[in-house]
Amino acid sequence: MHVALRSIFSLVFGYFGDKYEKKVIIASGFICSSIFLGSLIWENSINTIVTFLFLLAIGVSTFHPLATAMVRENSEKHQRGHYLSLFSAAGTAGIIVASLLFGFLVQTWGWKMTCLLLSLPGYFLGYAYLKSKKDKKNHKVIAEKKTKRGYINLFFISMGIRSLGLWAILSFLPLYATDYLGLKPEISAWITSIIFIGMFVGSIISSRIIDKNHPLILVLSSTIITTFLVLGITFIAQPISIVLLIGTLGIVEGIFFPSQSTWLTFICPVNHQSKIFGISLFVEGVSATIAPTLYGWIADKSSLILAYRWAAIPLFISFVLFLVLHFLEIKHDRSYKIKLNLSS
Description:
Blueprint lengths: L1 H16 L4 H17 L7 H15 L2 H11 L6 H30 L1 H21 L17 H23 L1 H7 L5 H4 L2 H19 L5 H21 L3 H29 L5 H29 L2 H40 L1
Helix pairs in contact: 1-3, 1-4, 1-13, 2-3, 2-4, 2-6, 4-13, 5-6, 5-10, 5-12, 7-13, 7-14, 10-12, 11-12, 11-14, 13-14
């Protein structure tokens, strides 16, 4: 429910971000999130705690669609992928550091005091956003790359199907490591961190290559590689090999996310970009909500290994759809150039 609520409000705040000052909305989100997270120290009722976590999800949802749009606004065209990759790397690094700190702090001071401590940076970040100077922005109303609305819809459908398969893998990684690799639960709990470390490395790699390549080609490549990596996980039982595969999966995903964001920046105008990123996060959130239930049911009816193999199907379908989109885009670009030549 937390992920579902966050995805819904990413859509809402993406819409508001195109109409109102992004920095004010983001600052409000940081401050509200800090208030709700820090207030958990005084709460003992499970209903109140769940309510605060839902409200926290709303506050968090203000950041990603609007901040991604701000990165686009303040980046030159030839460096846009570079900065979107670094933005992704910074977020991933934050997740890694926070997960390490959370485990240490919970053991030292307990979870309530830990939530209070982790809430403090939000106040400073909110203040920093409110006081930051207004940046010079590139406000072109028209999109930089002509495309059809149907192509954008196809992209979101492909991304949603892809996320369905990916989140099926992420949701059950600790269980997979315990039941099928024979790792102890306290060790299996850290296996998801390998994904995030790989994503950090992948984002750094992406920052070096994305502006020199077509972002949709990188989306295509990362999707088919992810498909084979997921299948590889189900056929290999050696822990070291699995760790390498999972790390590689993280690297590939670290390349995918900035690539899909970069492609979206070229096909949507600046005055609609927050809404577009909000839709992107909404689609991913819906898939992340459905995947654990769907593939958990498959695992209960058969086995987790079979559920993982089924997860490769939506990944491959999304690859096919992205491939169709790529050829449609090439055909559309050729037609558009012909029209320009005839008109001139």
